[in-house]
Amino acid sequence: MTVRTGDELPPLRIPITRTLIVAGALASRDYQDVHHDAEAAREKGSPDIFMNILTTNGLVGRYITDHFGPRARLRKVAIRLGAPNYPGDEMVLTGEVTSVAEGTAEVAVIGRNGIGHHVTGKVTVRLPSDVRATADVRATADVPAAADIPTTDIPATADAR
Amino acid sequence: MTRDELGVDPDELYGRLKAYEGRTAASGGTGRDPVNEPMIRHWCEAMGDTNPAYPGIAPPTMLQAWTMGGLAGHPGGSARSEAYDELLALLDDAGCASVVATDCEQEYLRPLRPGDQVTFDAVIESVSPRKTTKLGTGYFVTTRMNVRAGDGEDGDGGELVGTHRFRILKYAPARPKTKAKPEPKPASETNREPEPTADRPRRPRPVINRDNAGFWEGVARHQLLIQRCLDCGAPRFPWLPGCGGCGSQRWEAVEASGAGTVFSYVVMHHPPFPAFDPPYAVGLIELAEGVRMVSGITGVPYDKVRIGMPVELEFLRVDEELELPVFRGAEA
Question: Could you tell me the CATH superfamily of domain B10-173?
Answer without folding.
Answer: Hotdog Thioesterase (3.10.129.10)
